[in-house]
Batch of 2 targets.
Target 1
Amino acid sequence: MRNETLELDRRQFVKLGAAAGGGLLLGMYQQDLPAQFGGPPAAITPQAFVHIGTDDIVTLTIHKPENGQGAETAMAMLLAEELECDWNNIRTVFAPVEPIYGGPLQGTFGSMAVRTSWDPMRQTGAAARQMLIEAAAQRWNIEASECRAENGFVINQITGASLSFGTVAEAASRLSVPDDIPLKAPSDFRLLGKPMKRRDTKAKIAGEAIYGIDFELPGMVYAVVERCPVFGGTVSSFDASEAMAVPGVQDVFEIPQGIAVIADNTWAAMQGRRALKVNWNEGANANLSSEQIHSELVELTGRTGAIAADRGDIDSALADAATTVQAEYAAPYLAHAPMEPFNAVAVVEADRCEVWTGTQIPGLAHSSAVEASGLPADQVKIHTLYMGGGFGSRGGGSWVAETVEIAKRLSGPVKLTWSREDDLQHDRYRPASCVHLEAGLDSDGWPTAWSGRAACSSFAGLRNGLDREAVVELANPNYEIANLHFEYHEPGIDIPTNYWRSVGHSQNTFFAESFIDELAAQTDKDPVEFRRRLLADNPRLLRVLDIAAERAGWGQPATAGSSQGVAVTNCFGSFNAQIAEVTVENGRVHVHRVTCVVDCGRVVNPAGVVQQMQGGIVYGLSAALRGRITIQQGRVEQTNFHQYEPLRIDEMPEVDVFIVPSDEAPGGIGEVGTPAIAPAVTNALYQATGQRVRSLPITL
Amino acid sequence: MARMSLKVNGRTLTVDAEPQMPLLWVLRDKLGLTGTKFGCGVAQCGACTVHLDGTAIRSCVTPVSGVADGEVTTIEGLSADASHPVQLAWDDFDVPQCGYCQSGQIMSAAALLANNPNPSDADIDAGMRGNICRCGTYQDIRGAIHAAAEQANSKNGEEA
């Protein structure tokens, strides 16, 4: 009898025994999270990831929410490969918030779903398979080694007889979980590494997929919240009389975040909100402006900051350099603007709080709901639904807290819906950054020194005075440069910030890859050749660059009259090179073609990788061309898509994605396409116009 | 509040609504047809696209009183079982990522092809540029529309 223990290490599973209704339940350990997310959980309560019913249906619990990045499909593939179930007999459910699914940050972020699940999911599937085989072998009175599993059946290799998984699941559940489970050799993969259609496509094209915003409960009322337009402002007083007179409006009351309007449908709530009269304490940020922020950031880049990197002797290297190059670069605040505005449904009673929402980080949604409800953690449940995009915004903090605050004051369920204006004006933004860069070149034009300072609000908090994300690729450039020195300033601006697709890379790759191009241009070196030599010790990055140059026909653009620009990035464990072909017509930038080469190690679903690289490019290109959140009098100026216009289909370049075959451990993919497109385009613009773009969005 | 009769997806439904309530919210909150999505409320994003007498409209800025006795078709009514040629092509190309914009994309594409069975890339750009996709599925959308057009044309060719 296996000793059930609450503490799991990587090699142990704890089996729960027969599930209600029969079948096999199998727990799974939690892969160590990278150290900056707190490391491995100390003590885990085992939970089920796989349920095999006596009806042969395999129910997989997905602990990585689906926000479009394909996690649902990838997790199912990882399991099914080793489990040897029938792919068409799989159902998926999203995990409740329980420690085994990831701890306080249970969820998907950092392009980590596949790379943290690669081993555990396969081992879970393999363990279940072994137990099913053992159960069948016992029934046949033969050795397990004389059986194999295939497509949902255990096959007796002596007689050719077979038993379906469902038939032996109950017996398997009474067996011990094996300690040591050999995994398949990659050459034996049937699913992994081959393109797989997404599991959610059919529901989404029929209009049947339920997103948070679609969820309904009987007796549900509808809410919107009016928040102070100035960052950090609070309610001074309000007059709800006209709001209450709007047909359908039932109630108006204050919550910590603003004024909630409750109605019997969303539209009435929105109309009620327009009729509110609110006096605000605008507070300390009432005069905050983009101009002021920008000049503060620039001023900081002229002052000594926290040291993020120091190697060699930067002062001597710069003093001795044949040439020094300096430049100032800048990038703005950016909103995430997922297509589905934030929303949640919540119900709060004396001893229960339940929330239904699309969230990237159910663990965070849970802790927000616990705090807002005041209930113990085990009385708070989060139900994770599909999301209409996340891009780093959908952690589950702000709107979940608001919905619970509202539900606390009502006797039944309530749905809170954010408007697009709310989304753009009350986001937590990709922070603006100003950077001063300086390099020293030898007499042949090769860099001997790389130095600079970044002033950029921390993405999510400082550690030892630094935010590593805010200086990534600047403090640790990809290129072999002997003398290095980089400093960082946290400017203390009272605008909320958050991870945004590719985080620090989203602006720093633009800064670094533009500046490297500037250095090449000092002695008229070809941008690809310049990088090649400086990447000699970085073989995977060099390889994607070489393949991209070949595929793009570097030096001979396919688009007549276009100019080419190149950029590379190493982020989230993967390596990417992009070459853009660009023309300028009537003062407008046209991106015709993008060659994108990615090395993300072993691939689970190549179709998913292509989707994410294309999607990441579009997200980055949108930002490069028009992305800018500006602040005047403490409030965001942009209200809706006409003032924050994403890329549209008529601006979509032809994107060619090539995945480098690799045996390396899986790298991330969700964010990897975003960083390199802006500098690839602006480096091309330099070739086209002779003008160096040093701030985004691009203005010619 | 007014009681009105609406023709939606081939059925006549009775609903109580303010006359100026946008059709989008009548569909979603009153009729439980949540396939049509809210993205911006100002006709900038196309997520709310439905057909009115076969023409693509943005339901977020169409007051329900403006529908009168027109035939409204939503994504749920485009076909019985996701078998419209556009939906079949969307499935073949595995177009959706988050999928939230895709009801609107499909409705716009269906209207485009109904009016122009053989659209060029420029026609597709013009007909579809009102539909934003933040996940960036545009290349697959274009491919799927061309495929749906070819499929429909070859079928017609066989019948001829």
Target 2
Amino acid sequence: MPGERRPDAVIIGAGATGLVVAHELVSRGFGVVVLEAGDWHHPQRDFTGDEAQMLHPVDGVLRWGPIDGAKEPWRRHLDGISVAPQIAGVGGLDLVGWGARPRAYVASVDSSWPFRYDELIPWYERIEELLPVAVPRQLMPKDQAFVDACESLRLGHIEGADVERIGWRLQPSAILPMARRPETQGTFTFPAVDGCTGCGGCLAGCRNPEGAPIARTAMRNASAALAAPTWATGKMDLRTGCFATELIHEERDGVRRVRAVLYRDSDGSLIEQDGETFILCLGAVETPRLVLSSALGAPGRTGRGLTCHWMDVVSGVLPNSIEPSLGPVSMARLDLPGHGSIFPLGLSPLISALVATHGDPRSAAGGPWARSGALVGGALKRHLEEWPARLSLGISVGDRARVGNGVQLDPRDRDEHGAWPSIRYEPDDDDVRRRDWLARRAGEILIAAGAAPESIHRADLLPTLIHAHGTMRMGRDPANSVTDPVGRLHGASNAYVADASVLPTSLGGADPALTAQALAARTAGAVALVLAEGLRG
Amino acid sequence: MTDDVIRAFVDAVVPSVGDDATAGATDIAAERYVAHYLGPDRVSRLAAALTSNGSAKFVSSDVQLRTKVILDLRRDPSLRSLIDSAVSLAISAVYGSWSGVPASEMDRAPLGWVLTGYPGPSRVRPEALEG
């Protein structure tokens, strides 16, 4: 804490994984400083439930930019990528996801990670207990339509959490169970309503139930599930408005150590924060930015190997309304190890329209869809007028890491924090084939659900970084990895990475949050052992 | 003239006329929203790109032709980001909460919600609760 001995750990980034590390270290009695570039929002006060107001990249509540809304947002160069969402604030991108928390596909880990899937299980269980993670007790119409279609196609049902074959299952989610209807008519506030309220507004940031304290927010994002209880211990020094610009390091007796992190606070002052260990949790874009800006890590490998699941959406109009905005955004999934995953999505008209207009301009017909690629004009308007009955299916591809994809420092453009990150992504032929295969399966599911064939549209989205991983990959050999099997940066004895950037694969296409958080808990355990050894002298 | 071009652009993205008789982007002056967030430099670049074959042509063309111009320009990697930003802003104006009406008339639902039957954000959907 300020004025006392230097902290055991300085955690940079208060997103989904940084707050896991903070929670785990504090629970073991260590003192931590957490540096976060954004603010700590209170959902009851700050969240409006309106996607345009919350997510606008220039002046949205959850934009990627300074806390002072009068200042310009932070810029990044994108090459081959249409959208790279980032959020400044406690909770980070975890604030606006649909809460899916599946485990990685077993084969994706066992094939090339530096340890076996079985070793991850205790850490998965730790996070699943902590948030908590559960499957829904009942499905909304859009999800039931999806499950019924999977059943009619005899795709098999997976009961457990470990995926080794094709099958559908209920979506493991970091969302509280659906609240019970209150006994008193018209009283829909906390504590009469405690749990998910079915509002469908997950993507705008959960603020429900109305009147709930942060720790009882229905979506168990890192702010609700981790920051609030860890803050309550009084052992976490969480500083907002702090943008980390450089790690100060030195070599002594042949060992390189990080001595301090340099950060710029909201007043623009540069401040040095020292510590025993430094844990980087800034995410797949900003962690390599910081490491490269610090002349640390191997320049030929740091930032390289970006994977992003190259997401897509295929949609079709069912015979009856499915009320896309009713209930959590996604309550079921179909896992297809070897290819990726498919899942129903309850998208608002705004998000549906943005999806429909951001397709690849080179998109060509040739599957079970009447149209593919970007729609504008009358076609877009008709597409949206069908919204109440349009079932959207998200696709997540198990894309492969390529050295040409990743994050580097832009040689020309800089701001007050240093060089902009420049992010590049281009899929390879294998990814194209896998994605096309998944899109065809999604089209078949829509037909099985009763979709009119002439209504089926494949967005064929340009790559987005809704998921982003792999830029600081783990491995035993420093020649082809950036961090070691517990996340320690090769070549820096007291610096660790604990976010999705360490993932050696894209998990087969499963959502990365649970695995990133499990690895963060594992890394925190390793750091705790080192700190304990140090205290014992 | 630039104002006319941007108005013709948003009308092409979410039309008010043509096959579809329901209201569209120009009915809520979405061009003002687009121009505000793009800024003068990008508005000029967008207008220049849209009218590279002559300004009168783009403004006076029917919706289908203007739509084709927009989709063709997206194929140019040097213009795609600008076009996508402008389209996204037009979309946000119509299907997001910005309704372009004076504050005194803000009791109307946003246009895009009326067009789609979207109930808007809520704190609770009672029909989803258990029991």
